[in-house]
Amino acid sequence: MGEFRERRFGELTVRIDRQTCIASENCVNLAPDVFELGDDQIVDFVGDRAPEIDRDRLIEACELCPVDALIVIDEDGNPVVP
């Protein structure tokens, strides 16, 4: 099982699978207020709190991941991305 990080953004939960991440930085480029590359060159969340972000931009940033390391789940537990 991979190393995961999760953060809630309104009604969405974003999960990062850090073992799957290949550091393409697509998510960082679209949502630098949410995602950053850590010292280990793997994506992580910025800071300790979820910033306000447009729902569609957050989803798009996660959809850009070429290896599906970013998972978005809605408030009912249904997958939104991938």
Helical residue percent band: 10-25%
Main β sheet profile: 4 strands, antiparallel
CATH level-two architecture: 2-Layer Sandwich
Low-confidence parts, pLDDT < 50 over ≥5 residues?
none
Principal-axes shape call: globular
Strand order of the largest sheet: 1-2-5-6
CA distance, first residue to last residue? 18 Å
Rg over C-alpha atoms, rounded to the nearest angstrom: 11 Å
SSE pattern, N- to C-terminal? EEHEEHEE
Question: How would you sum up this structure, described in words?
Answer:
The chain has 82 residues and is of the alpha+beta class. It has one domain (4-81): Alpha-Beta Plaits (2-Layer Sandwich), CATH 3.30.70.20. It is built from two helices and six strands. A hairpin with a 5-residue loop joins strand 5 (70-73) and strand 6. It is globular. The two termini are 18 Å apart. The model has no long low-confidence stretch (mean pLDDT 96).
Characterize this entry briefly.
This protein is of the alpha+beta class and 82 residues long. Helix content is 17%, strand content 30%. Strands 1-2-5-6 form a four-stranded antiparallel sheet, covered by helices on one side.
Name some characteristics of this structure:
6 strands, alpha+beta, 30% strand, 82 residues, 2 helices, Alpha-Beta Plaits
List the helices and strands and how they pair.
Layout: E1 4-9, E2 12-17, H1 26-30, E3 35-37, E4 43-45, H2 55-63, E5 70-73, E6 79-81
Antiparallel strand pairs: 1-2, 2-5, 3-4, 5-6
